[in-house]
Design a protein that fits this description.
By secondary structure, the chain is an alpha/beta fold. The chain has 9 helices and 7 strands. 49% of the residues lie in helices and 14% in strands. The strands form 2 sheets. A 5-stranded mixed beta sheet has the order 2-1-3-7-6, with helices on both faces. Strands 4-5 form a two-stranded antiparallel ribbon. It is globular and about 55 Å long.
């Protein structure tokens, strides 16, 4: 955590504020459906355990309906990213590698990322300018407003949810992931929970959840209100202190 605070001070060019603990009892919003659906069993168990530990330490946990955040993210997310990524990558590969975008897409090693980039190769696969402009001028402002309203109405210090809905897949088994009896494409699935906050520009941080020996890492995410970076550091420091009290056996990250 200290390293994150230092990095933030350097990026923000502000060395006045250090890390502090939350001085009043924490109130966290359990953000649904991010925290209660579409999780693998390992993530579900680890996250529920972490929430129980926080509640046992006096943290107030309240459910907050974030379905509008997810809806707006689905409307904007991947289209916005790819509309902005394509010209940057096209120009980069031409300048740095002397090749075209189609050849670069074919060379990518990760099957799920390769599929996303290949979808941009035909002209029909690219995001129309009018769609991109609507996302920038309408959908993104609505997403930011939705976050503001949820924080105001719920009165929570931060939203919490599992950072990623699955543990890391094995190499070679990373094109799709099994979630609740359904095979889903890996790339949009692993970014699903953190994408809305990233698009909205709210501060976010992830903390490791205590795990038993042999379990793969699982993260607990915290999103704060826009502009409340230092306050989120204080919340995260308090959460980290609570989770660190749990004695853990050594980890051996294997299946």
């Amino acid at each position: 955590m200290n390293d994150l605070v230092l990095a933030d001070q350097v990026i923000a060019n502000d060395h006045r504020a250090g890390m502090s603990m939350q001085s009043t009892p924490l109130r966290l919003g359990l953000l649904t459906p991010f925290a209660d659906g579409g999780l693998t069993p390992a993530v579900r168990t680890a996250f529920d355990t972490a929430v129980s530990l926080l509640q046992g330490a006096g943290v107030q946990i309240v459910k907050v309906d974030g379905s509008e955040l997810r809806r707006l993210d689905a409307e904007a997310g991947l289209s916005l990213v790819m509309a902005e990524a394509y010209p940057l990558w096209r120009d980069y590969v031409a300048r740095a590698h002397g090749t075209d975008f189609a050849a670069f897409a074919d060379s990518l090693g990760s099957p799920d990322v390769r599929a996303v980039f290949r979808s941009l190769v035909p002209e029909s696969g690219r995001v129309p300018d009018e769609v991109y402009q609507r996302i920038r001028t309408v959908t993104l402002p609505r997403l930011r407003a939705a976050y503001d309203e949820l924080f105001k109405d719920s009165g929570v210090d931060a939203f919490t949810f599992p950072t990623v809905v699955t543990t890391a897949p094995l190499i070679g088994e990373d094109e799709t992931v099994l979630i609740e009896h359904a095979r889903l494409p890996l790339f949009p699935t692993v970014i699903r929970n953190v994408a809305p906050g990233s698009l909205a520009g709210v501060p976010g941080i992830t903390l490791p959840i205590p795990l038993a020996s042999g379990e793969l890492p699982v993260g607990l995410a915290l999103d704060g209100p826009a502009g409340a970076d230092l306050a989120l550091f204080a919340v995260a420091a308090s959460v980290e202190r609570i989770l660190r009290k749990v004695p853990l056996e050594p980890h051996y990250y294997e299946r």
